[in-house]
Amino acid sequence: MAKPAGQQSSAAADQRRVARCCPALALLLGLSPLLGGNPAAAQAAPRATASTELLERNWQRLDAELRALDQLLPADPQPPVGDGLTTPALPANLIRANQPPQGTLQPRQSLPAAPLALPTPQQLRNGSIAGLSLEQALAVAFANSANLQAQREQVAAALASFQAASGTYWPTLSAFATGAYEGNRTLTTSLQSNSWLPAPLFSPNGLQGSNGLPTAGPFYVPDGGYAAITTSVTGFEGGLQLNYALLDFARTPRVLAARASLEQQRSTYANGLRVLQLQVSEAYYQLQRARRRLGLLLNLPPEITPSASDPIQVQPRWPLNLEESLLAAYRGNPELEAVLATRAALAQQKQATAAGLLPRLSLFAASGGTGSQTSLSNIELGGGGCCGSTALPLSAKNGWDWSVGLSLTWLLFDAGTTAGQARALARREAAAAQQYAASRNDIRLRLEQSFFNHEASLAKLSSARRGVAAALEAFRDVRLRYTTGLSSELDVSITQDRLINSLVQRLNATIGVNLTYAQLLRELLPMPRNPAEPLDPQLQLKPQAATTTSAPTDRATAPPAPPTRTTAPAGSN
Prior knowledge:
- Helices cover 49% and strands 16% of the residues.
- By secondary structure, the protein is an alpha+beta fold.
- Among the domains are: 18-68, no CATH class; 181-207 and 215-247 and 360-409, no CATH class.
- Strand 3 (207-208) and strand 4 form a beta hairpin.
- Residues 1-13, 24-42, 76-91 and 545-573 have low confidence and may be disordered.
């Protein structure tokens, strides 16, 4: 085929530059006749090349020019390798990821690693590939997903908070006990006598002794008398105390807020199940491109690589129309109910905060007993003694007490702090209402897109099936023409390539139908809100009015090999 004039002139210019730079190289390449465009030189060139002596001189000249050219080129920073065909080996994990599964996934292999553990190098090197069906993948994901397990813990925490808030309706009963030891020494000195008191008990001669002589009264203390006493006291006190809030306007809103928070966590858990099922389905349908992503979603041990074991089987047509799908998506949707539960929790928190401005009435009661033992030792008297009270070397004291009453508290002024907190919660409640509207619109948009994409995918699948039928018919026709000598091998190869492409298009269309079906199923699939309830993977929507039928299986089968040629086509040699 002739080249354009521009390309011919450009090629000729390049050849002239090579000839001027390296004449010997140009002579070997047969470009010398192009120098100057001289026809006589072009005719003499074959005779010159025929001469062995001239050829040797040209080789020597070429070798000198190449050595000079090597000196002009910069040195290679890295030494050349001995074998130019040597290439770095591919990572073993990259090659092993495309190997067929070594067997089905066993229950012991699906156990996740510890939450705080990291994979070891041996686990990353010594791996295996296990096959599992989509239903098995969903069951493993529901049981092992780290995000889902964290959401289960959040539900359990919300349940515990609700139970704790519900306990405020009951009184609190507490026991208390104290024990102590105390020791001290006191010195009492009389700075003035008490004989001036008008009573014979305080007089120094107020009483008559048994011998008939006057003696001091029992309470008489002379001037300068003192008494030093060491006292040791060991005591114990214990009892029961009852507190009961009879009137608390913030108690019920707090309990309702905790209950709404529990419903919000449960709805979030159910919505997480939907999202996880969609993610696992997408990863499973696109396993050739996302095998490791499926392994991360399943939270499998690092040495396990999952592999799809199900055939590419198309899901049935979506059983509901668009209007029915929208109504069913809004009914009991955990995503919307989570927003409603959040709004209800904010409303109850606002009520509980506003109740801080109202009075609070509480009942309190206490009952207990006390006991102590006192010992006096190291008693010292001087200067006539002091302080004529009775001194007991060892004594014990016991007692019981009880109390009951009402407590009323009423916040009268806090500079608007409580009212401001209530207004902030009211604004958050209004924001939750707008979030509900946004989620409702997002659900409708996602469902409409999935619905229309599902219909389009079904149309593509139907077209792809017709394309496969047409490609098969064309392949049969060209095979018959080839066996009779009316067609060439090129026609058979082209037709076979078209048949393979049509089969691949049918498989891609099948995956598209399954993906859009999984997206629709994500919006309507019923999920339990309690993590303790059993969970069975559901791959298809089963409404009462819809009946499901098994769909044919689409497999990637290679077309038959071209038959052996028996008759040569016309015009062949």
